Amino acid sequence: MDKKRSDWKKKAITALMSVFILASFAAAVSSVVTNLASAQAEAEARCPLDLELRFGRIDLPVCYDTTTREIIFTIENGITVDIEGVIINAIGINKAVSFEDNAVLVSKTAAYTGRLAYDSRDAGVIRLLKITPKIKMNEIEVICLEQSITIGNVRPCA
User: Fold this and answer.
1) Contact at 8 Å (CB) between 90 and 84?
2) Where are the domains of the chain?
3) For the chain, which end, N or C, has fewer CB atoms within 10 Å of the first or last residue's CB respectively?
4) How far, in Å, CA of 109 to CA of 87, rounded?
């Protein structure tokens, strides 16, 4: 009996155990590689569509109303896809201010006139206004940085 116990202690791992260990290791490595590849793809994501977003074709598409302290802007969407939100960066003399507005919904070939609270006493006169569109593709929100529109020297509204 004593001999059986000593033989049992000296045996190596079985083939079944080695397969289980190798499969676990392969699953862990593939999970790490998949997560890294997914993060890299999201970091390098670009807007796959040409949105044709532009400022409104009117005399004053962007202006600053000094009485209500609001930036008033008009944007027009192209024929490709609906815009489902914007990120607005207003760069003033003293500081830059960023706003994210998911309530901005601009359907295809439509125009949108928005109002945005901005205090020029704090941030200074607006030197540059940049509007970045957001769209949804396959229920995933995509921010189209390369299709931002900018306008400089925002004038007071008449």
Assistant:
1) no
2) 2-43, 54-156
3) N
4) 20
Specify the pLDDT at position 129: 93
- φ, ψ at 148 (rounded to 5°): -70, 155
Reported as a single tens digit per residue, the pLDDT across 97-134 is 999 988 889 999 999 999 989 988 888 889 999 999 99
Report the C-alpha gap between 129 and 102 in whole angstroms.
18
Report the C-alpha gap between 97 and 88 in whole angstroms: 8
**Average predicted confidence (pLDDT) for the chain:** 85
CATH of 54-156, one of 2.40.50, 2.60.40, 3.40.1800, 1.25.40: 2.60.40
pLDDT in tens, 31-47: 888 877 766 655 555 67
- Do 134 and 84 contact (CB within 8 A), yes or no? yes
Q: What is the dihedral of CA 33, 39, 43, 49, to 10 degrees?
A: 100
Q: Are β-strands 62-65 and 140-143 bridged in parallel, bridged antiparallel, or unpaired?
A: unpaired
